[in-house]
Amino acid sequence: MKKMLQLIVIFTFILSSVSLVTTATSTKAAINNKPGDIIITRSTSSKGVTGHIGIYIDATTILHTSGWSSEPYPKTISESGWHSRYAESKVIRPNSSTLGQFAASKAKYYFQNKNIPYSVTTGPTNISKTYCSELVWYSYYKAGKTFKVFNPASQISTWVTPSIIKPYDYLSSSHLNYNGFSFIDNTW
Question: Which single residue of 32, 77, 146, 148 could bond 81 by disulfide (Cβ 3.0 to 4.6 Å)?
Answer without folding.
Answer: 77
